[in-house]
Amino acid sequence: MTTSALPTLPPVPAPHPENAWCQLSIEQAIAFVKAGRIDPAILIWGFSPQVLSVIPPDLLAASNKNLPGLMEVLEGAEQ
């Protein structure tokens, strides 16, 4: 039985380490979603429409389901 390594975030300069996901490729983001480390909504919120074709259908469905909640959080953070 083989185990795949959990994805790791790339280094992000201070003062905003919470924005590390911005440094991810779509493949890395998919790996994080599969590992349960980021919300699947990031896949459709944070990437261009051109990459939607590489998102597996189950993750795309989860992304669409979670997007309204992510938008609520982001809108609340702006206020």
Provide an overview of this structure.
It is a single chain. The mean pLDDT is about 85. This protein is mostly helical and about 80 residues long. It has helices at about 25-35, 40-45, 55-79.
Top keywords for this entry?
79 residues, mainly alpha
Compact description:
The protein has 79 residues and is mainly α. The protein has helices spanning 26-34, 42-45, 57-78.
- Give the overall shape: globular
Number of helices: 3
Task: Please state roughly what percent of the residues sit in beta strands, choosing from under 5%, 5-15%, 15-25%, 25-35%, 35-45% or over 45%.
Answer: under 5%
The rounded Rg comes to 13 Å
Low-confidence stretches: none
- What is the residue-mean pLDDT, rounded to a whole number? 83
Helix and strand composition category:
mainly alpha
Number of strands: 0
Tell me the distance between the termini. Answer: 49 Å
> Percentage of helical residues?
40-55%
H and E string: HHH
- Main sheet overview: none
